[in-house]
Amino acid sequence: MNNKHESIKKVLKVIGPIILVVGIVLFITTIITMTSMSSDTFGMTVFTGFGGVACIGIGSICTSIGYGREIAKYGVDEYGPVAKDVHKDYIRPMMKEAAKDIKDVIHGDEKVIVCPSCGASNQEGSKFCDQCGKALVKTCPSCNKAVSEDALYCPKCGTRL
To answer: What does DSSP say about strands 138-139 and 112-114: parallel, antiparallel, or unpaired?
Structure first.
């Protein structure tokens, strides 16, 4: 980094907090004055308040620019490990699952169940039709276990279907 840049940062590190403190003092003074003022000083008090808000904004910007490198380094040190863990533990697995789902849709590998009542396609594992609401899976009338459509006996209780 060049010397001119460093000298500007040093100035901003000093001037920024000073302007910020002046703005805070002006703003607090305005609030205190407005609670106990007469109507003849209203205009000057409002002007002082706006000046205080402007100084707070300018001081904050100068301070954040002056300490930008330090702030960014702190953020990286503080949030970097958390971001890596979030990516590894949550985002990467979700993206893999989403990529698999997209691949299945594109290549037509997604298995569907056709509703015997209305003929609509439903996702594999669905128990009821998305269109008509009727049961997609045959169930045993005795124990309510889901059985395949071509089963003659329930695999759980042995009841004839």
So the answer is: unpaired
Q: Give 121-130 pLDDT, tens digit per residue.
A: 888 878 888 8
Q: Whole-prediction pTM value?
A: 0.46
C-alpha span between 63 and 23 (Å, rounded) = 13
Q: How many CB atoms lie within 10 A of CB 121?
A: 13
In the chain, what are the helix, strand and coil shares in percent, each to the nearest 5?
A: 65, 10, 30
Cβ 26 vs Cβ 50: under 8 Å: no
Per DSSP, what are the bridge partners of residue 113?
122
- The owner of tokens 């490198």 is 69
Q: Are 136 and 115 in contact (CB under 8 A)?
A: yes
Q: What is the C-alpha to C-alpha distance for residues 112 and 122, in angstroms, rounded to an integer?
A: 5
Number of neighbours of residue 26 by Cβ within 10 angstroms: 19
β strands within 74-118, DSSP E = 112-114
Angle between helices 42-66 and 3-35 (to 10 degrees): 150
